[in-house]
C-alpha cells in the first residue's frame, strides 16, 4: 500500500441545517432520537449543534449529542503531546471531550502507538492517544486520521463513543453511549461451527487453575499484541472515503482503539496493528483471496490459510479478517489461538468478523468479543433459545456458563437468544468482561499460551485490594443486599457478579439448583448491590435475567473492583458464599393502605428460613423506597410480630423495610403506604352566670382531647383568658386526666369575683398536641353578670326651713350607697319643689333651688325659705341614684319642708 498525502483541513462542518438531507435521503430517526444540548466546550474546540440531519443509511443511536469539531485547533493542541509512559498521564496537553449525556470533561492526553513502527512511518497522518481524567474515572483512546477523529472511552456511564458522520453539510460528530447503538454492532451472530469440535484450549494445569477459581488479578503489566489486520476488498471499499489505504487503516485503528478501551482496563491487553498488515489489506473484491459472502467461520479459516502463505509467523501475534455484511449487525468467528501456530486448528490467524455496511465504524464491540475468544475466553451464556442453541453447550462453554440466559457482558450473546434474552430495558448491557472471562483471558495471557508472544510492559499500577465481606445463610425467594469494599490509589468502580456455573443449558429465570440466576450489572461507583434491582423490587417487576433463588441451594458472588486505567487497568475481586435454606422471609402487614402519623402500628412478617437471624430491624422510607433513612425499630426479636410508631411525615410514597440484623436479607412491603398527619380534636364546654351577694361566681369548665394515634395528658394545656380587666380571677383548679391512649379529659373551676362591670367574659382555651407536634385548640366563653342592684339611703339636713323669710338656706345631704360588687357610686338626680318658684303670696322671688349640681355626687345645695301664701306649706324633694359597674341602679329621696305655720 502507498500512503496518500495528509490533508489537514479535513471536512468538519461549521454548522448543520435541519433541512439538509444526506445521501439516500433524510434519516427520520436522527431527529426523533437526538438529545439537544446547547453550548460549546470551554476551550471552544467543540460546538454542540441544535439539530443535525444524518444520512438515511446511517444507524443513529437512540440518544446522542451532535457536535462540530475545530479540527485545526485540535491538531495544534496535539503537536506537543507527550508520549505515553504507561503511568499517570501528565497534565501537559489538556483538552475537552464531549459527554454522551451533554456537557464536556477536561482530560489529559499522551501520544500512544497503535500502529506498528513501519506503518506509523508510512501513514504519519494517523495518530493515536490515550487520555484520562482521574477525578471522574474518564479514560480511553483517541484516533486522529484521514476519516476524522474517533474517541472510545470508559466513563461512569459505560463506554463513550464519539465518531464522525459525513452529512450533506459536511462532517459532524456524534457523542453517544455504546449501549445506545442501533446498528447491531453489539449483537454477535456466530455460526453453528463457531467452536467446532471441542479441543483442549489450555494446558491441563491452566484448566485446573481456572476451574479452581483461584483469585486472578491484573494491572501490574500490560501485554501488547500485534494484530495482523486483513481485509476483504468489500471492507476496504466500504471504509475508503476517498483517501484510499489511509482511510481504511484509519478505520481499523479506530476499531482497535475502541476494542482497547475494553481490553486495556479490563484484562491488561492492548492490540496494535502489525506492520505485516500491509501485506494482507486487500482493496479489490475481485482479486482478494476471500469470498466476502461466506460465513464468518469460513472466513476465519480462510484468513488462517492466507496468513500462513503471505505472512511470516514471527511478524504478528494474532490475526483477524475484517469483512462486511449487508445492513446492520455484526457477526464473527474466532478460536482460542493467540500466539499459536500449532496446527490448522490452533493457529493465531483464526479470527474474522463481518461488520454492517452502513457507514458506521461498528467493529469495536465485535473485535472485543472475538479477540476475547482468541485470548482464551469462552461464551458465558446459559440460555437454550435463539442463537444460544447454535453452539450446543459443549464441554468448553459449559465450563464458562456463568450468566443467565443470553448474558449481557462482552462474551455473552446479549440480544440474540430469543425468549432467553436478558431484559436490558431498565439497565443496559455493558462493554466489559464477566469475571469468568477475566479469569480465562488473564490466566492465558499472563500464564498460558499468551506469554509466548507479544510485548510485556510494566505499568507501575497495582490491582485493588478487595473485600467481599463474609458468608451468609439466607432464606429462599427473599431479597438481599451485597456490600463489600476495596482500596486503591485510584478511583474505583465496582460490580457484583454471581459466580455459579450452569451444568446444562436452561430457559432463563429457572432455578434447577445450580448455575446463575442473577445477571451482571455494569460497573458503577457503589460497592453494594441489591438483588433484585431495587426499582424492580419496589415495582413488583421480575425481569428476565434476575430472579431470587427458588430452591435451597448454594450461591457464590464476586465483588470486582476496577481502576479503569488505560494501558493496564488494575482489576481484582473477592468472593463470598451464600447458603440458601428455608422458606421465604416477608412482611405480611402492613403491605398497603393508609397509616396515621404518630400511630403505633403492628408489624407482622413470615419468619420462614429467616430464623437464622435472631433479630430484625425496621426502617422507613418517605421517598418510595429509594432511601430508608428513618429507623422504626432498631432491633427486635425475629418472631414475626412487633409494633412501631409511624413517623410524623405526611405523604403517599412510603415504604417499610424489614432487615435482618447481622445478615444481608430483607423485605420491603409490597405497595406504597400513605401517611396522614391529623391534628387532635378538642372540645371545650363552660357556662356563666350571675355573681352572688359576695360578688362571686364559680366558673365550671370541661374539655375532651382525642387523637386517633394517641394524645398524652402532658401534651394538653389549659389557659384562662380575661376579655377585660373588669373582674378578679381566682386561682383555678384544673384536672387533666388520661382517659385512654387516645383521649384526655379536662375538668376544672375558677372563682370570678369583684366585678366592676358586666358582663364579664372569661375564655377557657384548651390546647392539645399530638406526638407529631400538630396542635389543636378550642375555646369556650363563660359570661358572668351582676344582676343585684345596690342599696341607697338619703337624709337631708335641715329637714325644715323656718321662718319663710324668702332667704336662701344651705342644705346638707347624707347618702349611704352599698353594693355586693365594688364600684358603686351615687349621683344627685334631682331637687324639686311642689310649688312654683313665684307662687301666690310667696314674696315674688325666683330660683328657689340653687347650687344643686345635678348628675354629680353633690351633697350641698341651697333652698329658699318660702311657701305660697294660700298653700299648706312647701315640700322640697332631693333624689339620689346609686349605680354599680354592671348597670344596676336604685334611687332614694328625702325632703325639706317649709311649713305653712309653725
What does this molecule look like?
With 902 residues, the protein is mainly beta. It has six domains: 28-180, no CATH class; 219-375, Collagenase (Catalytic Domain) (3-Layer(aba) Sandwich), CATH 3.40.390; 460-580, Sandwich (Immunoglobulin-like); 586-676, chitin-binding protein cbp21 (Coagulation Factor XIII, Chain A, domain 1); 681-785, Sandwich (Immunoglobulin-like), CATH 2.60.40.10; 791-899, Immunoglobulin-like (Sandwich), CATH 2.60.40. A nine-stranded antiparallel β-sheet has the order 1-2-9-8-7-6-5-4-3, sandwiched between helices. Strands 10, 11, 12, 13, 14 and 15 form a six-stranded mixed β-sheet that branches. Strands 25, 27, 28, 30, 31 and 32 form a six-stranded mixed β-sheet that branches. It comes from Lysobacter firmicutimachus. Residues 1-22, 883-902 are annotated as: Disordered. One of its GO terms (molecular function) is metallopeptidase activity. Pfam families: Reprolysin_4.
